[in-house]
Queue: 2 jobs
Job 1
Amino acid sequence: MKPRDSSKTTVTIRDVAKMSGFSASTVSIVLNNAPLARYIPPQTKARIQKAAKSLGYFPNVFAKSLRSKRNHTVGVMVFDITDPYCTPILRGIENSLYQASYLQILADAHNERGRFERYLEMLLERRIEGLIVLANWLYLDINLLADIERGKIPTVIIGRELESDATSSVIVDDEAGAYGALSHLYGLGHRKIAFVRGPKALSSSKARWRGVQRFAKDTDLELDARLIVDLPDQLNPNVGVDDGFRMTDELLKRKRPFTALMAYDDMTAFGALRALAKAGIKVPGNCSVVGFDDINPSQLFVPALTTVRQPMEAMGAAAVVIVNDAITAAAEARSFGAIHRKLAAELVIRESTRAVPDKSS
Amino acid sequence: MKPRDSSKTTVTIRDVAKMSGFSASTVSIVLNNAPLARYIPPQTKARIQKAAKSLGYFPNVFAKSLRSKRNHTVGVMVFDITDPYCTPILRGIENSLYQASYLQILADAHNERGRFERYLEMLLERRIEGLIVLANWLYLDINLLADIERGKIPTVIIGRELESDATSSVIVDDEAGAYGALSHLYGLGHRKIAFVRGPKALSSSKARWRGVQRFAKDTDLELDARLIVDLPDQLNPNVGVDDGFRMTDELLKRKRPFTALMAYDDMTAFGALRALAKAGIKVPGNCSVVGFDDINPSQLFVPALTTVRQPMEAMGAAAVVIVNDAITAAAEARSFGAIHRKLAAELVIRESTRAVPDKSS
DNA sequence: CCATTATAGCGAATCGTTTCAATAAAACAA
DNA sequence: TTGTTTTATTGAAACGATTCGCTATAATGG
């Protein structure tokens, strides 16, 4: 005897049709509130709804997507989820996606190229409707871009502006942010300022330094080359701390006095803080420190870190707006050019910066 | 005239069939290396592969899943992704999932019940093959459990052991962890130890306290009620710092001396660190502090926090092993009981704890 | 040389929806 | 009354893949 147990695993639209006494077509029309539902009398609707509910029916998304070619799913590719910089952006993405009732498939490339490609392929296979790439830190090379464009899928990159203009992007105004941070230190009376610059390969690194230079020029502040060190090129964002520590240590060894230190980012600043503590230099008593990013731990630190805040949730949200627009454009067969958004950073003044002690006293 | 442009958006198996000169059936058999492929001569295979490649064909997952009822996707529901405790677990989950070539749909409940339910529904609609719930912090009530069980989907909960035994779980051995932490302090000579306990509603809170009590009993250590405070029940994990600060502040006001403080978790410890700093108490010079969890910022702190490390990546991996086993069991129509794994925590000794100063000196 | 058996490939049904075109009754207009 | 429109409902054809069962040739064995 065949199992034929009553617990028919899946209840289909035909089951609902049978129970309600109408055809599958009608059930579909009612349940989706399709245009034709206009002609369906309320009582019919009610009976169908009731049958559907009592059977616990919900439509099979695969069948649905197979016809409609839509699946309300976007891919989110991060390069390293353990980077604290990611999390708020992910929150921003998630939140906006949820509002638009999209679901996200999360892929983490671990900063590995092969993994990125494999994931990209898997995502493409799933026929995601859009793709958001969170390019924190990794030196995103151009071939990856080509891979993405091959997919012909609406894509936004957060954190990196590609040379080619074809893919949308959301970035923060690094230059203005750095300008503001330095301006803050300057306003507190600091003149001997040390810099731990970011890895040269990073575009944000360059942009932040441009901000510094511009401010220096605007105010005739002298940038002492002996007070400038660079973070090595490095794939793992989480060792930024160690590098920051090491570079600051080296800076200290130069015996060149400074009253403030501007770090490439918060992680670097944490490392610097540790190096300064080790050298017996009090922050902010003897030296002010400013970071960049405002990742979560920065406000926790003692002293809490003065830093330049990236509007990370907003960046995530902005990315979603762009993909969403692109997706609807595609659905309506409109063409849709790439969009580039640059969001403003905001200086957050906390405890790690203080006016330079008055020399006269 | 119809558009009929050559850029036929999607290339189907039939296109491959046409190009290679075989039928769709054969193409399917070859491309999936199905049992029947045994009979297909190598040259035929080669021709089909070539055609597929040259057309850039990849199968439509919807059509595929529609038949096979499998889609290699699991849902991952977190309660708050901005909680730093989440990230390493997510990494562990992602990594294991990737190995098994599963993709994950990430849902973030924001600690809101309605959002949890909505997401659960969406995930069920997608017919995810398994579900991993990351129950950090939220007081997961029993109704949610019922919701999950309704779905009949292999589920694992990380971080919470449900009363009902029906759903698998992965938790950490809180009691032993707390026991070890206290033992560490005791070994350093501390006898007047303050405690900032976690919210009473949290099961981990209770378990950790049990560990403390057990150790106290084992060693006749006296637990001074005036040195014990409780964190308020509170939904947002990120304000644990503020609560930790406030409670430590209050503790300090009691003027009851102590040489060490054991915090419910790292966030609380950060708050305590800040309160102690404010009161001019040096850590670890005048007071040792120990946390729990070992979230990312803990090692960054100055002083770096001594804490009890939860093996978060391993927990994520363990969860994946369980769902994976459950899924294959289900696929083979075997029954599969709930599994409960309790992982050991590990004491990580850093800079925030030190031997109590010798009184004789 | 005929009966098997292995080899190669195909046609058609199926998965669960949506949607177009068709039908038919009812309502309306002339 | 007849012809047209509106209202209600449905059958059948996709969507793109997998798979069972069938045919047909080639190889094998006696």
Note: Residues 99 and 298 of chain A are 29 Å apart (CA to CA).
Job 2
Amino acid sequence: MREQVTGRRRAATLADVAASAGVSASTASRALNGRGELSAATRAAVLEAAERLDFQPSPLARSLRTRQTYTVGFVVPDVASPFYAASLKGAQGALEAAGYRVMLMDSDQSIEGEVAALRTLANHQVDGLLVATAGVERTRFDQAVGGADTPCVFLDNVLDGAGVGAVMLENAAGMTLLVDHLREHGHTRIALLAGPQQETSGRERLQSFVAAERSEELVRVCAWTQAAGRGATLALLALERPPTAVIASSVELALGCLAACREQGVSLPDELALVTFDDPDFGALLEPPLTAVGYDPREVGRAAAVLLVEAMQDHGKGRREVRVPITLVRRRSCGCGAR
Amino acid sequence: MREQVTGRRRAATLADVAASAGVSASTASRALNGRGELSAATRAAVLEAAERLDFQPSPLARSLRTRQTYTVGFVVPDVASPFYAASLKGAQGALEAAGYRVMLMDSDQSIEGEVAALRTLANHQVDGLLVATAGVERTRFDQAVGGADTPCVFLDNVLDGAGVGAVMLENAAGMTLLVDHLREHGHTRIALLAGPQQETSGRERLQSFVAAERSEELVRVCAWTQAAGRGATLALLALERPPTAVIASSVELALGCLAACREQGVSLPDELALVTFDDPDFGALLEPPLTAVGYDPREVGRAAAVLLVEAMQDHGKGRREVRVPITLVRRRSCGCGAR
DNA sequence: TTGTAAGCGTTATCAC
DNA sequence: GTGATAACGCTTACAA
């Protein structure tokens, strides 16, 4: 009743609620958390007081006491990348729905950055971790999170058998779809613009390609950049027997390929067919419209969050892996509907 | 010395350090924080003990006591959008460098979502707020953050004169650049695909356009989507006297315009010139390559973070506004180098 | 059913 | 200079 003097009264505390309801703090706590048995009358009184004072329990104090922060750390190599941004969105939605907050860290593609991020997060006692690793080794990872039992789910770029789960795309199926489609168009000399081999996606896509083609002759490993894709394509085009089709392992690579072709005046899809992993929303507006393997990037974040929440709630169950489905979207760059 | 029995020893606490150094907790605290005068010897002993035990102060306990969390809330309508994702990256970098963590909330373009986010954040006692508002009114905003004095910097979409600062793009200059360039190409019937008028960018861009053209005849207000851009363009094209050039207020709108033109078989830039705000990294690969006003989206996040950090550190200084510069990048869609 | 008291890991105010 | 001691706001044995 006091404290109404000025406009800015400090936020109500549990003690205030208790006092106002005429009970002890512990009783108030129990009433609010629905723990223990207590008379309907007191419970109601407490609830009413809490409502009236607009009581908001302090997460800080609660966490300090319970050792639960209801906060999840999200670590990615680069939030500005469309894929990670979308994953983040998916994860954030699912986590929030489950009552968790997300603390974001960007490792900036560096192992040092990732380790620092993990340490900070562990320090903050996050309840769980969602990480797209930049490539730490297992031991450094464990060390960074403090050998803690903090459950961790990896996404996209996975650390071997670590963590309580992992979410990846159906890389193998996607690559197979791409290769098969090109074959249906009659191609026999297919090149691959592959991604970095330290990364799960880069590795899996290349592996499936090689499994299908039984040759590495036309494989070119690139960084995930437009420039790398352009360079590799230029080299491919200069070959004595150039490929008649190329598969890009990501949009950036495909864009680079497109740029190279434009420079060299090779027309798609007549002189060279192009298909790619990742279906950007401007895919249909490129010239030619891009045939691609598409998927919902948010889904990988969401799925990872779901896995993590389960792990945080009931320990056990063991490690789980989920694959986010992909689909082939046919446009013109592969030769479909061409001529 | 004890506790080494098993691999998992709980993290060292200040008390452990103090004990190990043979001093009291308060002394240890002072040594670690460099507060108060104490003998060089004790300080060294404490530091050594802390190092040896790999002591990491608990942010939770510290925050509870000091009422400072070193955490900043970041609220955006949609993290998956390239612009916000980039802003986030910029902000995150600057904040981390200044010792702050970022807690991310996505309002999902809804006012309700934003209010909920703000409440949660206020509840967590964040030291500051970075928000691209979805459009709350001033009173609800103040109420949500609890009438608190938590400094807030707005970005992109700004709440009138609220908060300690705001960061926006040079919308007026950008629009002027676009209009002038089109005029140089001889255009006199220029249309504008405008953005939502509840949003700062949408509003400012439209205003500058009208200021330059002195007419709203060819202005079409759209949502920030490809579909809206397409629809509006179709309508424009069907006019008795259609425009000879169009300015899109964002990439999505430009993409929609492109799609509409393709459908109708109108060739760019001959039959219609197109220029746009936002220079996507695939801008050069579209057909025709897009002339656009570009800027560094990360910079808006970074600038906002800088403003916020200053506000959090020394209260005062008053409200400040910064504008992130833009530049015109000429490609073919405007008519440059055409024919 | 409810209250008392201890404690989570810090920092701040006092004495000594 | 350094050490008790009391918060910060909450939960949870343990008593009553």
Note: The longest strand of chain A covers residues 71-76.
